[in-house]
Model the fold of this input.
Amino acid sequence: MCLLGIETIQRKAARFISGDYKSRDHGCVTRMLKQLELPPLQDRRKMARLTFFFKVAEGLVPAMPTDTYLTPIRGKRLIKPKKLDNYITKNIVENQAINHHKCFKPISSKSDQFEHSFFPRTIIDWNNLDSAVVCAVTVQSFIFKTALQQCY
Done:
C-alpha cells in the first residue's frame, strides 16, 4: 500500500501523540491510530466538503449563489442503487442516489480532472446522505448528524 504525503504525516503524528517512537513491529502505527480514534484523512476531507456544500445549499455563502451552481431535482421517487463490494464503475448513473427532497442534479464531466473536482464529486456524496442529515437547521447539527451517519 502506497501512502501519500499527508497520510504519512498523520502516521507520524500518531507516533508523536502516543510518544512511542521505538516499536517497529508490523502494524504498530495502525494500532496507534485505532487506539487514538483518529478518523482517516479521507473521511475528514469528505466531511469538510459536505459541510461547505451544506453552507452553499443553504445560501450561507454569499459569494456562491445556489441557483448558479446547483440544479435541484424535485418530485422524483427515492432511488437507492445497489452497491457491490468488488465492483468499481465510472458510470455516474450507477453512483447516484436520490435519498431526500434536497437532492441536486449530478454534473456530468468529460475529463477526470473535472469529475474529481468539488461540485461533481460532492453532489454524489450529498445525494447519498439521509434525509435527517440534510434537513439539519444549523451547520453544527449538520456536522454532528453527518459524523453520526458515517460512524454507523
